[in-house]
Amino acid sequence: MAGPPRGGSAGGRDGSAGGAGWRAGLAGGRGWPASSPMLHFMADSGAAEPVPQYGAGTPDGFRRLWTPHRMAYIKGEKKPGDPSASAGCPFDHIQDLPDADGLIVARGALVFAVLNLYPYNSGHLMVCPCRHVADYTDLDDAETAALASFTKTAMKILRAVSGAQGFNIGMNMGGVAGAGIAGHLHQHIVPRWGGDTNFMPVIAQTKVLPQLLAETREVLAAAWKEGG
């Protein structure tokens, strides 16, 4: 595919992508000035029509998928400010909710398994201690054993239900190590399949998930009760 001229635009000197015909096709009927130096349309989440945005820049070969709803995750909204305090911790909060509302798949006396709200793959589980504890070394022997047992059960269930071919399993200890919620220990169990890393996450930074979280929880919870 031929790139834009070295002048920085993909057409005329006014920053258009092919002159008046392109401007008429893009902005025609919407009332936007055809002589604007740069007009970009952003599709906001849930918007019926693209949102016009004037500005300056060099057109390239990429399309943009704007996801402003993810700013809540990026900014850390609703995350506990004090890692030592359980108040505001989502892992503590969901234990007081019905399983379906909190996406909890299975509960034990010392640990529980819950779906990740921002899954890397379908069936991305986390095993957490019921007690609010941040560091793996702070678990007692019974909690450590329960965490390991739940992890093994989660692997068996995911293999049986979804045919998982492999797993990424691990913990991020501390915010500097990548822990999104550092105050409450949680072990990730991510099922993997051949080809699950494709152009969508690598190029488009977008995960395509074939099943809604509530449906995934139902399937896993039922399998856990039968074979867990």
Structure overview:
The chain is an alpha+beta fold. It has two domains: 1-66, no CATH class; 77-227, HIT family, subunit A, CATH 3.30.428.10. The chain has seven helices and seven strands. The chain has helices spanning 20-27, 71-74, 90-93, 99-102, 141-162, 199-202, 213-227; strands at 39-42, 51-54, 104-107, 111-115, 125-129, 166-170, 187-192. It has a five-stranded antiparallel sheet with strand order 3-4-5-7-6. A hairpin with a 3-residue loop joins strand 3 (104-107) and strand 4 (111-115). The radius of gyration is 24 Å and the shape is globular. The model is unreliable at 1-45 (pLDDT under 50).
Are there runs of 5+ residues with pLDDT below 50, and where?
1-45
Would you report the number of β strands? Answer: 7
Helical segment count = 7
Rg over CA atoms:
24 Å
Outline, from the CA principal axes? Answer: globular
How far do the termini sit from each other? 54 Å
Describe the secondary-structure layout:
Layout: H1 20-27, E1 39-42, E2 51-54, H2 71-74, H3 90-93, H4 99-102, E3 104-107, E4 111-115, E5 125-129, H5 141-162, E6 166-170, E7 187-192, H6 199-202, H7 213-227
Antiparallel strand pairs: 1-2, 3-4, 4-5, 5-7, 6-7
What descriptors fit this protein?
228 residues; alpha+beta; HIT family, subunit A; 2 domains; two-stranded antiparallel ribbon; globular; disordered N terminus
Write a compact overview of the structure shown.
This protein has 228 residues and is an alpha+beta fold. The chain folds into 2 domains: 1-66, no CATH class; 77-227, 2-Layer Sandwich (HIT family, subunit A), CATH 3.30.428.10. The protein has helices spanning 20-27, 71-74, 90-93, 99-102, 141-162, 199-202, 213-227; strands spanning 39-42, 51-54, 104-107, 111-115, 125-129, 166-170, 187-192.
